[in-house]
Amino acid sequence: MNYFTSNHVEERRVAEEKEEEDDEEVNDNSMEVWQKEYAEDRSWESLQEDESGLLHSIDNDAVQHAQYRRRLRNLSAATAASRIQKGLIRYLYIVIDLSRAASQNDFKPTRMAAVAKHVEAFIREFFDQNPLSHIGLVTIKDGVAQCITDLGGSPDSHIKTLMSQSGCSGDSSLQNALDLVEGYLCGIPSYGHREVLLLYSALTTCDPGDVMETIKKCKRSKIRCSVIGLSAEVFVCKHLCQETGGSYTIALNEFHFKDLLLEHAPPPPAIAEFAVGNLIKMGFPQRAAEGVVSICSCHKEAKVDGGYICPRCKARVCELPTECRICGLTLVSSPHLARSYHHLFPITPFEEVSLALLNSSRHRLTTTCFGCQQSLVPSGNRPNLRVACPKCKQHFCLDCDIYIHESLHNCPGCESLRHSQTI
C-alpha cells in the first residue's frame, strides 16, 4: 500500500523523477548514433568465451535445442515422479500489467508491445493444444483491474480485443486483479481447472487492502496462479505462486519471455488427490444448412450460412468449442477430443545419441533422418546432433524431434512399425 504523509513528500518525489528524466536525456544526447545502435541491439549478448579465451558467436539453434531437450527431460521426470492427472478443460485468465512500468523500452519497442505480440502467439498455441479450454483477458491500469474479454474459446476475438488496447499509465494492483479473477473463477465447475497467468511489469503493487488475505482466498478456491515477471523478482508474486502451486519466473529478454510464456500452453499436472473426476455431458452439433437465415445465440443477430446447430435445443452457434447460451450444453467436435487426447499419453522423450556411438566403427548408423530424410552427416564445423526413439530405435534430427513432440504427437517410426505388423 502507498501512503503520502504530506504535500512536501509528493513535491520532492516529483522533483526527483524530473531530475532522473533529465539525466536520461543528457545520457542519450551524449551518445553517438552508432553507439545508440549497439546499445539498443545489445550485440554483446550474442558472444561467448571459449576455453582458450577467444570470443565466438553463440549458436542460437543449438542453444534453443538444448533448452528444449532440458524442458522435455524435466517434464518427463515430473510425470514419472508423481501420480498426476492432466487438466483437459482449463479456464485460464491472462492478467496483463499495463501500468506505467509496461511503457519501459528494455523490450523493443516497449514492454507492452512485446507482451501483446507474444500473447497473441500464446493464445493460438494454447487453443491448438487445449481445444476444449477457455481463456479470458484482464488488464491492470491506474490501479484498477478490468476484464476486457470473458472466458471463451475464440482466439480471434481475444486477439482483436488485445490489439485494441493502448496506453500504459498509473500503478499496478495485484490484489484488485486477483479479486476480479477469483470472482469469475469461483463459479467454474469442479471438472474445470482454474488458472491465472500474470504478466507483471511493475516492481510494486498499490492495493486497497491486505493482499495476503486475497492470496489465501485464491488458495481456498483452488486457483493455480503463475507469474512471469518482466523486471526483478517481487516477494509478493513469489509468495502467491508458492501458496497456489504455480510457477514464478523472470524473463531475461524477449526471447526468454517467449519461451517462458509458451511453457504454460500444455496443461499443467494436477495432483490426483485434489483432482475430481467427473462425467461431462457434451453435444456434437451438426453443420447448419447453407442458405438458411437463423438467429445466432452467440451474437444475437441474424446470420446466413455457416454455424452449428445444438443437438438439444436446436439453437445456432457460430464456432466450436463453446457452451450453448440457451441450454448450457458443452458443444464440441470429435477432432477437439482427439487433439486433447495426446496430453493423457504423451510421447516418450527421445534419447540423444552419444558421441561414442557416433564415432564407433562397429555400429553402422543411418545417415538420414527418418522423418524428413535430411542428411545427419556433419558438414563443416557443425556438430552431429541427432536423437533416437527409445522404442523403435529410429534416428531423427532435432527439428523433427521438436515437431513430433509439440505438433504431431506421434512417432513416425513407431506408427510405421505398428502398421507393418498389422499387414
* Class by SSE composition: alpha/beta
Percent of residues in helices: 25-40%
Radius of gyration: 26 Å
- Estimate the mean pLDDT confidence: 80
Main sheet properties: 6 strands, mixed
- Biggest sheet: strand arrangement: 6-5-4-7-8-9
The span between the termini is 71 Å
Estimate the global geometry from the Cα principal axes.
Answer: globular
Measured by DSSP, the beta-strand proportion falls in: 15-25%
| Helix count from the secondary structure assignment | 13
Number of strands: 21
* Regions with little confidence, pLDDT below 50 for 5+ residues: 1-7
Which features does this protein show?
6-stranded mixed sheet, zinc-finger, 21 strands, 3-stranded mixed sheet, 38% helix, alpha/beta, single chain, zinc ion binding, 13 helices, globular, zinc, 423 residues
SSE topology:
Layout: H1 7-30, H2 33-41, E1 47-49, E2 55-57, H3 60-81, E3 84-86, E4 90-97, H4 111-129, E5 134-141, E6 144-152, H5 155-163, H6 174-185, E7 193-200, H7 211-220, E8 224-229, H8 235-244, E9 248-250, H9 254-262, E10 269-271, E11 282-283, E12 286-287, E13 293-296, E14 301-304, E15 308-309, E16 316-317, E17 322-323, E18 330-331, H10 334-341, E19 351-352, H11 355-359, E20 387-388, E21 395-396, H12 398-408, H13 412-422
Parallel strand pairs: 4-5, 4-7, 7-8, 8-9, 11-18
Antiparallel strand pairs: 1-2, 3-10, 5-6, 12-15, 13-14, 15-16, 17-18, 19-20, 20-21
Helix pairs in contact: 4-5, 4-9, 6-7, 7-8
